[in-house]
Amino acid sequence: MRYVVAVAETNSFTRAAERCLVVQSALSHQVARLERELGARLFERTSRRVRLTPAGEAFLPAARQCLDAAERAAAEVAAAVGEIRGRLAVGLITTVAAADVPGALRDFRGRYPHVRVSLRVGASEDLVEKVVQGSLDLAFLGLPTNSRPRGVAVHELARDRHVAVVAPGHPLAAETSVDLRRLSSETFVDLPAGTYGRAQSDLAFAAAGLERDVAFEVTSADFIDRLVGQDLGVALLPSAYAPRLTGVTTIEVTDAPGRVEYVVWSRFGRSPATSAFLDVLGIAPGA
Question: Is the pLDDT of residue 80 over 70?
Fold first, then answer.
């Protein structure tokens, strides 16, 4: 099953063998043997490409679940004798501010050097889905105040309000505060439509009966301040994240949208590594 997953992820028997540290002939033989046992071909092989068959598409999720279960079982045995092993896959949004994730990962690796740590940055809605599927152990999210993550265990970290972000030479830069009606006449830089990060602002403008022009959509908040700094538009970002911005001016918004930061993990049980990381964060899972 590990060989099948490797071939599916690399689209190559050669690269899969390199990843699995075996010779290609041995890997190919084992995959062919599994196909005979299943009575179906898992891959279509040509001289130019390798891709999953419909049977392979059906087999792959179950294979991943079995491998994850085997890894979890080994980690549970290690934890029972006092050692934390296995993996810790963490997801986060770029604007997370309620937790020092890099610092926590540093402390965690210092305490538990035998755990393989990985990190994925993405949008909140995608990270929740990956926690549900099991490809992430836990994730840090930012959601509108009227939303709550579904299908996962949830711990609220903090609540925050947005501030307006403008170029230093923008006419609003000298103001101490502004409202959504005044901002609605500006061109905006924001995250893609349909994401939780975008929804925080969209819902606030809609509730106020206002429309706005989002001319620049970016997938990462890290790029927003660069566009705003060139006076291409204005933005709304969480106030706790604002101190990280450079080359821009922030302004209080009197009727600002809010957001809630959460950390989430599987509601069907935590791995020993996940429990240990929550402990590093000072989070009691039942709290």
Answer: no
Q: What digits encode the pLDDT tens for the residues 8-40?
A: 888 889 888 988 888 999 999 999 999 999 999
| Sign of the alpha-carbon dihedral angle for 226, 227, 231, 234 | negative
Residues 102 and 65 in one domain: no
* Three-state SS at 252: strand
Distance of CA 271 to the CA centre of its chain: 18
Helix/strand/coil percent split, the chain, to 5 = 45, 25, 30
In a domain, 175, yes or no: yes
Query: Looking at 29, 46, 79, which one is the last position of a domain?
Result: 79
What total of structural domains would you count in the chain? Answer: 3
The amino acid occupying position 31 is V
Tell me how far apart the alpha carbons of residues 126 and 65 are, in angstroms, rounded to a whole number. Answer: 19
**pTM for this model (two decimals):** 0.73
Query: Which of 283, 273, 281 lies closest to 76 in space, CA to CA?
Result: 273
| Longest Cα–Cα distance in the chain | 73
CATH of the domain at 112: 3.40.190.10
